[in-house]
C-alpha cells in the first residue's frame, strides 16, 4: 500500500480548491465580467392634476400682496352687485320721463352671468383662493369698465354733445334735459369699482402664484387662436350699431334703405365727445384683453381669462338681444350675432385648455401624458 507524501497532499488540495472557483473574474460589485447592464423600464408617469387651489407661493412683498388681492376681490363683489341693482332701479330722467332698463328673462340671465363671473371671482380673491386664475377672470369686465364708465358719464353729460334722439335700452327719446338717477349712480359706482379692482390685481399680480403644475405646451396654439380671434370679433361687433331698424324702404331703382325719419342708435364712430372716446376705448380694450390672455403662461390663468372673456361676451349679447325683443322698431344686427359667436369661441377655448392632452418626453426619456 503506497504512502502519501506531504508534497502530494498539498498539490491535491490546491487542485480541489481551483476546481471549486469559477473560471470567470468578478467585478468589484459582484457582477460577472462582460455582463450587459440592464436598466429596468421606468413606470409610465401620469400628469399632475389640474387644480385651482390655494395660494402657495411665498409672499415676497412683506405681507401686503395677499391683503391687496383680498381688497380687489371685495371691490369686484361690490362693483358687480352695484351694476346688477342699477339695472333694476330708475336710470335717468329725460325731460320728465323716467327711464328704467326693461326686465325680461334675457335681462335676468345677463345679470346672473355677471354675478357668476365677477362676483364669483371676487369672492375667491377675498378669501385668498384661486389667485391669478380669479384675477384673470376679472380681466375682461375690469378692463372694459374703463370705456363703460366713460359712456355712462357721457349719458348724463351736456346736451350739445348728444344727438337729436337719445337711445336708452333700445328706445329712442327726444329730450332737452338729462338727469341721472339712482340706477345711473350705481352703474358709475360699479364700473369704477371694477376699474380699481383691476388696478389692485395688476399691483399684486407679480407676487401671487397659483398651484398650477400643468403647463399648456401644445394646447397654447389653440388657446391663442380662440382668445385673439374672439378679441377681433368683439372689436368688429362693437364697431357696428347695436341694432338695425326693422322698417326699410325699397326705392324705384331697387336699392333698399332706411327711411330718413327713422333714427337708429349710433356706433362709436357716430358719437361725439366723451361718448366717442368711451366707445372707441371700449371696443379696442376687448381686442387687447384677447391678446393678453393669449400671452398668459399658466394654464389656470388662461382658463380663468377665457371664462371671464366668455362671460363678458355672453353678458353683452344677452343685453343686446334684450333691447331688441319686444321692440317693433328694431331687429338684431351684426353686433348681436358676433357677440354670440365670440361667446361660443371663448367657451370652447376654455374647455379645450382644460381637457386637451399632449404627449411629451419627460425626464430621462419617460413619456408623460399632459392634460
From TrEMBL:
<feature type="transmembrane region" description="Helical">
    <location>
        <begin position="188"/>
        <end position="206"/>
    </location>
</feature>
<keyword id="KW-0472">Membrane</keyword>
<feature type="region of interest" description="Disordered">
    <location>
        <begin position="1"/>
        <end position="50"/>
    </location>
</feature>
<keyword id="KW-0812">Transmembrane</keyword>
<feature type="transmembrane region" description="Helical">
    <location>
        <begin position="134"/>
        <end position="154"/>
    </location>
</feature>
<feature type="transmembrane region" description="Helical">
    <location>
        <begin position="68"/>
        <end position="88"/>
    </location>
</feature>
<feature type="transmembrane region" description="Helical">
    <location>
        <begin position="277"/>
        <end position="297"/>
    </location>
</feature>
<feature type="transmembrane region" description="Helical">
    <location>
        <begin position="108"/>
        <end position="127"/>
    </location>
</feature>
<protein>
    <submittedName>
        <fullName>Uncharacterized protein</fullName>
    </submittedName>
</protein>
<feature type="transmembrane region" description="Helical">
    <location>
        <begin position="302"/>
        <end position="322"/>
    </location>
</feature>
<feature type="compositionally biased region" description="Low complexity">
    <location>
        <begin position="8"/>
        <end position="20"/>
    </location>
</feature>
<keyword id="KW-1133">Transmembrane helix</keyword>
<feature type="transmembrane region" description="Helical">
    <location>
        <begin position="334"/>
        <end position="355"/>
    </location>
</feature>
<feature type="transmembrane region" description="Helical">
    <location>
        <begin position="218"/>
        <end position="239"/>
    </location>
</feature>
Amino acid at each position: 500500500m503506497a504512502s502519501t507524501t506531504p508534497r502530494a497532499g498539498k498539490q491535491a488540495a490546491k487542485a480541489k480548491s481551483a476546481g471549486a472557483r469559477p473560471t470567470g473574474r468578478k467585478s468589484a460589485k459582484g457582477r460577472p465580467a462582460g455582463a450587459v447592464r440592464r436598466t429596468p423600464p421606468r413606470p409610465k408617469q401620469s400628469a399632475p392634476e389640474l387644480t385651482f387651489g390655494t395660494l402657495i407661493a411665498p409672499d415676497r412683498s412683506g405681507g401686503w400682496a395677499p391683503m391687496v388681492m383680498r381688497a380687489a376681490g371685495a371691490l369686484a363683489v361690490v362693483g358687480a352687485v352695484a351694476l346688477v341693482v342699477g339695472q333694476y332701479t330708475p336710470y335717468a330722467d329725460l325731460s320728465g320721463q323716467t327711464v328704467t332698463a326693461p326686465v325680461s328673462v334675457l335681462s335676468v340671465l345677463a345679470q346672473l352671468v355677471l354675478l357668476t363671473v365677477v362676483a364669483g371671482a371676487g369672492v375667491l380673491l377675498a378669501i385668498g383662493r384661486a389667485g391669478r386664475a380669479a384675477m384673470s377672470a376679472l380681466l375682461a369686465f375690469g378692463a372694459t369698465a374703463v370705456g363703460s364708465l366713460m359712456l355712462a358719464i357721457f349719458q348724463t353729460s351736456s346736451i350739445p354733445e348728444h344727438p337729436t334722439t337719445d337711445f336708452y335700452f333700445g328706445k329712442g327719446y327726444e329730450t332737452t334735459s338729462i338727469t341721472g338717477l339712482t340706477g345711473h349712480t350705481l352703474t358709475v359706482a360699479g364700473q369704477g369699482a371694477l376699474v380699481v379692482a383691476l388696478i389692485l390685481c395688476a399691483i399684486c399680480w407679480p407676487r401671487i402664484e397659483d398651484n398650477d403644475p400643468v403647463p399648456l405646451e401644445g394646447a397654447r396654439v389653440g388657446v391663442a387662436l380662440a382668445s385673439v380671434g374672439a378679441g377681433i370679433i368683439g372689436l368688429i361687433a362693437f364697431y357696428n350699431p347695436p341694432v338695425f331698424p326693422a322698417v326699410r324702404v325699397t326705392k324705384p331703382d331697387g336699392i333698399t334703405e332706411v327711411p330718413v325719419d327713422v333714427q337708429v342708435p349710433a356706433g362709436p364712430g357716430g358719437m361725439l365727445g366723451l361718448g366717442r372716446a368711451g366707445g372707441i376705448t371700449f371696443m379696442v380694450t376687448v381686442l387687447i384683453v384677447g391678446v393678453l390672455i393669449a400671452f398668459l403662461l399658466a394654464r389656470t390663468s388662461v382658463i380663468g381669462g377665457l371664462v371671464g372673456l366668455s362671460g363678458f361676451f355672453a353678458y353683452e349679447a344677452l343685453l343686446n338681444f334684450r333691447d331688441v325683443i319686444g321692440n317693433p322698431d328694431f331687429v338684431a344686427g351684426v353686433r348681436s350675432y358676433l357677440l354670440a359667436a365670440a361667446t361660443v369661441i371663448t367657451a370652447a377655448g376654455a374647455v379645450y385648455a382644460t381637457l386637451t392632452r399632449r404627449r411629451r418626453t419627460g425626464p430621462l426619456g419617460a413619456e408623460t401624458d399632459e392634460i
